Amino acid sequence: MVHELHNNPELTGQVRLIENITYAAVAGCPLKMQILAPWTQRYPKQYHTDPRPLIVFVQGSSWRTGRMGEEIPQLVQFVKHGYVVATVQHRSAIDGFAFPAFLKDVKTAIRFLRHKATKYAIDPHRVAIWGTSSGANAAMLVGLTGDDPRYKSHLYAHESDRVDAVVSCFAPMDVPDTFKASAKVPGNKLLQFCLFGMDTSKWPAEMAAMSPLDVAEPGQDYPPFLLMHGDADQVVPYHEMVDMYNKLDKDGYDVEAYRVKGANHERDFWSQQVYDIVLDYLNQKVK
User: Cα(286)–Cα(255) distance, rounded to whole angstroms?
Assistant: First the structure.
C-alpha cells in the first residue's frame, strides 16, 4: 500500500541553518556567526517571511573563541516559536585580544544583524541577547553599555547595539571573585594576563570595567534582565548572580532570577524547563 501525506506548501515548522557568515574581520581575524531562520527566508521570491524578533546567542568559552554549534540543537525550538537566532563568535583573549575585544565584537555582530535585517527576516526593533558563562558576561555588558562609544567600532556605526532584553546563564558578574574562585584551575593566571595585560597595576580597573556588578549604575535606561545560575556551580560562584539581582532590583530595574538547585556550571544546568522559562520570558519582553 502506498500511504498518502499532505505536502507543506507554507514550509511550516522548517528551520534553515545559515553557516559561517563572516560579520567582520579585525586584525586579519574573521569573525563568524551562524543564523537559524525559518526556511521560507531562503526563498524570498516565493515566500514572504514576516520580520521576527532576534535572539543573539553567545556561547561560553572562557573568553576564547566559542564553538558556535554547542547549543544549536536546542536553539532550533526558538525558531519554531517565531524567532531568528544568531549564534556569534568573538576574538579570543588567548590569541592576544584583550578586553574589551570580545565585547566590541559582540556589539559589532548586533549592528551587522540590524544592517542585514531585511535579508535575514529580522525585526531590528526586537533584539534580545542570551549568553552562557563568559558569553553571559558579554551579554550582561551589552545590556549595561548600550551604544557606549567606548565599545563601538567603525563597522556598521550607523546601527545601534542596544538590546531589548538580556538572558544570562551562570555569568561572571564579579570578575575578580570569579578568578579567585577558580585560582587552582590550570591557565587561570595566563588568562588574566591575556585579558588585562602585562601591567598588573591596571588589572583592578580593567576587571571592574568587565564586571557587570561594578558597571551597573542607578538611573540608566537598561533593558530587562533574566538571570539564571546553578547553586552548585564550581566555576562561577552562585552568589554572584544573587548579588547582581539584588543590585538591579534595589535600583528599580526590571530583573528576574532563577536558582537551579544542585546544578553545576553548564552540564546539568540545562533542562527543557530552563528553555521554557527563557522562551516565556522573551515572549513577554520582545515578542
Answer: 14
What's the one-letter identity of residue 44?
A: P
pTM above 0.85, yes or no: yes
Q: What is the pLDDT of residues 168-221, one digit of tens each?
A: 999 999 999 999 999 888 899 999 999 999 999 999 999 999 999 999 999 999
Burial readout 255-284 (b: 16 or more C-beta within 10 A, e: otherwise): bbbbebeebebbeebbeeebeebbbebbee
Q: What is the 3-state secondary structure (H, E, C) of the chain?
A: CCCCCCCCCCCCCCEEEEEEEEEEEECCEEEEEEEEEEHHHHCCCCCCCCCEEEEEEECCCCCCCCCCCCCHHHHHHHHHCCCEEEEECCCCHHHCCCCCHHHHHHHHHHHHHHHCCCCCCEEEEEEEEEEECHHHHHHHHHHHCCCCHHHCCCCCCCCCCCCCEEEEECCCCCHHHHHHHCCCCCCHHHHHHHHHCCCHHHHHHHHHHCCHHHHCCCCCCCCCEEEEEECCCCCCCCHHHHHHHHHHHHCCCCEEEEEECCCCCCHHHCCHHHHHHHHHHHHHHCC
* Bond into 223 cis (ω within 30): no
Residues constituting the chain: 287
Supply the pLDDT for residue 186: 86
